[in-house]
Amino acid sequence: MLTDEEMFRNVAADSMAQGFVVEILLAAYLKPLLPQDCVAAVKAIEEMGKKTGHFTDLAKDDDRAAEKFADVVIRMHAALDGLLYRAARRVLAD
User: Could you give the count of Cα atoms lying within 13 Å of 41 in the half-sphere of its Cβ?
Assistant: First the structure.
């Protein structure tokens, strides 16, 4: 049976691997674009990622759950920004 720490490490490793794959695929998507179009695409993806209204009712009856969910959304925005930045840097550095 896995310990909590082992499960956490597995989830973290999975998340890191998924992020790496997404970053590589995003860079491949951005690479054929002109630099200004690459920047515009990154900004558009970033803006779409901030639209989280479809999650509004997930924790509406539980303040504690809503607070935790809000924290997760804030962290997701930071992770998305990191992925976008790294992918754009990969493309624009070439």
Answer: 18
